[in-house]
Write a structure and sequence with these properties.
2 copies of one chain form a homodimer. The first copy, chain A, is of the alpha+beta class and 167 residues long. Chain A folds into 2 domains: 81 residues, Arc Repressor Mutant, subunit A, CATH 1.10.10.10; 62 residues. Chain A has a 4-stranded mixed β-sheet. In chain A, helix 2 packs across helix 4 and helix 5 packs antiparallel against helix 6. Chain A starts with a helix and ends in a 7-residue tail after the last strand. Chains A and B meet through helix 1, helix 5 and helix 6 of A and helix 1, helix 5 and helix 6 of B. Chain A binds a DNA duplex (30 and 30 nucleotides) through helix 4. Chains A, B: One of its GO terms (molecular function) is DNA binding. Chains A, B: It holds the Pfam family HTH_20. Chains A, B: This is MarR family protein.
Chain lengths: 167, 167
DNA sequence: CATATTGTTCAATATGTACTGAACGAACTG
DNA sequence: CAGTTCGTTCAGTACATATTGAACAATATG
């Protein structure tokens, strides 16, 4: 099934992501970049995973939006190189937190829709929403904690000025 | 779109569950039972949600396995009545925790597969697994805290009888 | 300008699985 | 025993969406 340990890791992370309701390829890309020491181009990733460049393009940007991958621009190079962020834990938790908070808001809004005549339902729904909200708070707090513990990155995008001066 | 606030809640929870990679109907059933003061029969639930009894049967038992619903047996009554557990938060967190722990185990195992000659990869993968494991610990701890804070049920709803083998 | 390379967009397809209907078994009644 | 009612199982279908191929835009070179 798995030829190499690399592939095993890539496929496992892909399956885990899929089980969480995400595209499998997104997880595979992340795993691929985590294993790689150097940033990889879109084409390299696509070939490694045996998928289309279109998928990689879409999903690597989704990962970027979640704060899990970064583009590494090289001066004088048009090509986009991608790397996994050094400590993805904080971003992962923060993404979860945001989802929870959105859910909390939606549910709380519904709780308000229940008039005072349905006090019982209103309370139960509100309680449900509160749970989501406190979960969001909790996860966010934890993410902060992790990010503090980990060597902090500056938010500025990393630029390799590895310019080889052409003759 | 939504006729009643009840339906709005039911559909919203269904969508949230679906976004998490679960069957939508499972979330709808849970929402339905949360809104209901009295336990509901399988047929009632099916009619309320406009879905087949087969789906309700399957999903309500999935919810039970996760500790979110309970069967209420009545003496001299063959019919199964279902209710949502009083405080589903703990069970929700515990289910998440278990998923995280399974993921952690799988990843750690892969980390071991990397020989010492691939120290860099081994470390990165192990770190990844550790994150999942500490997340699992964290969630479980929190679940305990919530369950302690909430009025304890007299009947212990332990679902942990299933021995968790790593294999 | 033409040509080459790279990344994105989007309609079409492939794929997984949620959901259903029908058949079945179990538990009760008369 | 035959006749109901209820829950589960399972093969088949429907449906959502992940993924692709091709067209396109953008950027560079000469």
């Amino acid at each position: 099934m798995h030829d190499t340990t690399d592939e095993k890791f890539i496929e496992t992370i892909g399956l885990i992501w899929q089980a969480e309701g995400n595209p499998r390829i997104a997880g595979q890309i992340l795993a691929c970049l985590i294993l790689s020491d150097d940033p990889r181009s879109l084409s390299e990733i696509a070939e490694t995973l045996g998928v289309s460049k279109a998928s990689v393009s879409t999903n690597v940007r989704m990962l970027e939006a979640r704060g899990l991958t970064e583009k590494v621009s090289r001066v004088g190079q048009r090509i986009d190189l991608w790397k996994a962020v050094p400590h993805p834990q904080g971003a992962t938790l923060r993404a979860m937190s945001q989802r929870f908070r959105r859910n909390a808001d939606r549910i709380t809004e519904i709780a308000h829709d229940f008039g005072p005549e349905a006090r019982g339902k209103q309370d139960k729904v509100a309680q449900f929403g509160d749970f989501y909200r406190s979960s969001a708070d909790f996860l966010e707090q934890w993410a902060d904690q992790l990010d503090k513990a980990a060597p902090a990155r500056t938010t500025a995008p990393h630029i390799e000025d590895e310019t080889e001066n052409h003759g």
